[in-house]
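Dear colleagues,

For the upcoming journal club I promised to circulate an example of a predicted protein-ligand complex. I picked one with magnesium ion because it came up in last month's discussion. The inputs are reproduced below in full, followed by the predicted structure.
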Amino acid sequence: MRLSRYFLPLLKETPAGAEIVSHQLMLRAGLVRQTAAGIYAWLPLGYRVLERVAAIVRAEQDRVGALEMLMPTIQPADLWRESGRYDAYGPEMLRILDRHGRDLLYGPTNEEMVTAIFRDSVRSYRDLPRILYHIQWKFRDEVRPRFGVMRGREFLMKDAYSFDLDAAGARASYDLMFTAYLRTFAALGLKAVPVRAPTGPIGGDLSHEFHILASTGESELFYDSALDAIDPADPAAPERLRGLYAMEAEEHDRLGTCPVPPERLAVRRGIEVGHIFFFGTKYTKAMGMAVPGPDGTMVTPLCGSYGIGVSRLVGAIIEASHDQAGIIWPDPVAPFDVGLLNLRPDDPAVAAAADALEARLEGAGLSVLHDDRDLRAGEKFASMDLIGLPWQVAVGPKGVAAGTVELKRRASGERAELSPEAALAAIAG
Ligand code: ATP
Ligand code: MG
């Protein structure tokens, strides 16, 4: 992809009103633009990241047998009257009246809808267990939308719903999702801490939140500092994370006892990127779902719901991975693998070498953003650092004469003069 034909509106100055670094960088690097309070348009570069995050989330859901579907954003209020949540939900729900005077709403979540769909088609215990999910936009009219996509009003969520015949099955579905979550965050290059959560007004008896440690997080966490030594890239990381003590401050204080000795206990802030709940028959009972069990008696299925903040994750990843110069994308979610810099677009030999290298990189299955713009080299390097692609390859007149390019790894800043072949081999790993 040639930058001269791309849509990448970069900002030199930090925009006013963007308080945290991820919000600042998302605006400066041309990833998103705000269109109304808490509502964002995803520009081409940002949308590629959002799609890659969603693809990783999807792959790990599919891997545990969850079934992808797509429910609408707009829901009839009557569904929510069945569960009793239409009045209970409060002003966070965006309520809409259609031309016929029927009450609709923009879904803040989908328990009611998925329960109604499943209820109307489930015939017997043989139809259980099932886990259904979708990746869909939600709307919550947050009192204080802030921090860019981290606390938006419209945001993209993966939400899954499990239906089981008995408590043991429901527990197994919960554990399956728990594992899928740890794998998802590891695949995104993130260390996410499972935190035992109070179940709150949604009810039920089992819930965990998943947090990314970052100073700008909205939650305060107490955790076993053994966590700090865990490398998210270690294949054993998910298993190690599972057993560690981590609690939100309020819950930690409330419990009063802590299995971790004080010298090993750490306090840091966290960003909630996922939340799973087991809530039993709350919705199936209220909405009249029952299936004939193996012995013919009617059984009310037990359910859980499992959310991941897909758009929030993009901000959280930047909070966890950036430096003074800009974003440092973890390889699995980078919008392009390589930033190719043509340092002298007006020099035909340099342009030919850059074009040839772009073709070879793409031939090797790598995605390339080729800066062929007529700008000073310094500005090009600064733009590449800002947008944070994992690899940079610079092609200039001296290198073309010597048969070399300059390769830079964004994360470490390490540079090397190499032949184009060697650069390709290093990137392709
Ligand atoms: P929070 O406490 O941050 O408001 P929540 O408990 O209301 O989150 P859930 O209803 O469990 O969130 O939603 C599942 C996931 O959706 C959350 O873990 C979070 O990652 C994401 N999410 C929730 N609200 C927002 C929002 N306003 N903007 C972006 N992502 C959100
Ligand atoms: Mg909320």
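Two points we might discuss: The mean pLDDT is 95. Residues 40 and 409 are 30 Å apart (CA to CA).

See you all on Thursday,
B. R.
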